[in-house]
Every structure is written in structure tokens, then in C-alpha cells.
Amino acid sequence: MEVLTLLEITAVLWVTYLVVTWWLERGRLSQLTDKTVLITGCDTGFGNLLARRLDQLGLRVFAGCLTEAGVAELRQACSERLQPIQMDVTKTDSVQDAFRLVEQAVGSKGLSKTCLWGLVNNAGILGVMGGTMEWATLEDYQAVLSVNLLGMIDVTKTFLPLIKKSRGRIVNVASGVGRLAMPQGAPYTVSKYGVEAFSDCLRRAMRCFGIKVHIIEPGFFRTPINNQENLLRRLDQTWQRQSPETKTEYGEEFLQAAKDGIVASERFMEDPVLVVDAMDHALCATHPRSRYVVGWDVRFMFMPISWLPTDLGDLALRLVEPETALTPVCCKDGK
């Protein structure tokens, strides 16, 4: 009887928490037109969609693009409130140039309505994907880390003084694989684990300054970074550069199974607008969440598996993601 009573109390408290949270999260900031936001990685994907969304909402947007084509596309598609700027997050000089441009534009009087309200660290690359982590070189890791993690750190540290003046918000795009390691994309996974750690440290350190830090954890979404044709081509390129010994160890069957896994994943990808909704909420809600888990795969697979004891988690991942259990030819039949 006492056990049932305890369970009932727990259930009531949990439901009450969910209802109160849902009610609080419905509120939106007023005077959004006074807010200025910088977004990195706006050439395509989440960043491009978010830049367009915030522009439509009336915010002033600085959209960082790697390419001139990205700058031109956004300049033509959006209003004069949106200012696309060419920005390479892997180059400190480029980040500093962007900082000077934004600082001059928003002013430096320390008033929330004239300073930078939001920073969205969205720029990212996938790198080597498919196969196994052994196929990735040190250069592969360095290329992904320089954009996804070190670039994010550089941009954040550079623009932090402006965010402090506005007591604004920082939104960092991590990933579901920042919770559950996937050997098919080890460089990307390592970088996103780093994003999680950096963001947690930043949130706890910046709380006393009134700055809110939010983590977005998307699963697999239909964006250019996950384009099937590009993934398959990149996998072939990675395979071709392997040594004859490595190719013999793994075999053509392993390569084909990895390709089949990429093709199969296409049907599970979701609409990227869900991620943009989360970013929008993190920037514009009166009571945003510290962490946004976006996508059925992260919520119902990655997260629960990450909570299991290590050995059980490994077993569960092999069962739900067969491509993580691909066996090289040399390891079959006890060889």
C-alpha cells in the first residue's frame, strides 16, 4: 500500500512538472524586432532555414556563410534586416573580421536593445562517414574538429563580450551522437561529444552573467550534410585510400554493407523544420530549455541506450543499429 502511495505521489508530481513546463514554454519574448542574432553556417541546412525564419519574425540577423554563393543567395532571398557575411570559423582572422563588423553595427553602449542578443553556433561538417573508425586518418579528425568544436569555441570566446552586455543567449548545435558514440562516423562523434562538454561548461560558467546557454541535439534530418549521394561518394573515397592489407581485412562485403546502411538511413530522416523550431524557441521563448532533444531516433533510441550500463548499451546498439555490428571478413568464423 505504501509503495502504491509513493508511486501515485511520484506520478502526480511528474505530471504537474510536465504541465507547468508546457505552460511556461508557451511564452514568447516581446519586442523581437529589437533583437540581433548571429548565426554561423548559413549556406545551407539548419542555419539557412533559421536565418530566414528569424528574418521573417523581424529580428536583425547576421548570417555567417562560408561561400560567396551562400552570401549572395541569402541577400537575394531575405529582407534588408538580414546581413549575410562571409565567415570561416576555422580561421581566427575571419572570425575577428566578423566580430568587428557586428560590433560596429550593433554599437558598444552596453544596452540590451543595441547589443548582440543571440549567438547560434551552427557551422559544422560531417567528415568521414560510414565504414569504421579505423578508416579515418588524423587529418580527418583535425578537419572535423577545427569546424565543429574549435571553430565553435573561437566564435563563442570572440563574441562573448557582446553577449555579456545584452545578457543574451548562446545556442550550440550538438547531435544525438554526442550522447551515443557511432563508430561509422568517429571524427564527427568525437567533435559532438566535445560540443556537449564545452556547452555544459559554458552554461554553468555564464549563469552568473545572466547568459543562457542552450544545446540542440538533432538526430538524422534531411539536410545537405546528410545527402545520400555525397555520403556514398565520400565512403568510396575513404575506401580507395585504404591500404591493401586493410581492404583484405574488411573485404568488399563490409563496404557494401556499410553502403546499404547509408541507403537504409534515408527513409528515417525527418523534416529539418523541427530543428529550426527548437532553435527559434531557444532564442525567442521567455522560458527556453537548456537542452533540446530533436527527433524520434534521439529521444527513443540514442538517449535510452546512453543511460544503460556500458555492456548493455553496446548490445542494445548492435540490435537496433545492425551496421554498428558489421564484421570484417578476417573476424568471421573465428579467424
From TrEMBL:
PROSITE patterns: ADH_SHORT. InterPro entries: NAD(P)-bd_dom_sf (IPR036291), Sc_DH/Rdtase_CS (IPR020904), SDR_fam (IPR002347). Keywords: Oxidoreductase. The keyword Chloroplast does not apply. GO terms for biological process: steroid metabolic process. Pfam families: adh_short. It comes from the Eukaryota. GO terms for molecular function: oxidoreductase activity. This is Retinol dehydrogenase 16-like isoform X1. It comes from Branchiostoma belcheri (Amphioxus).
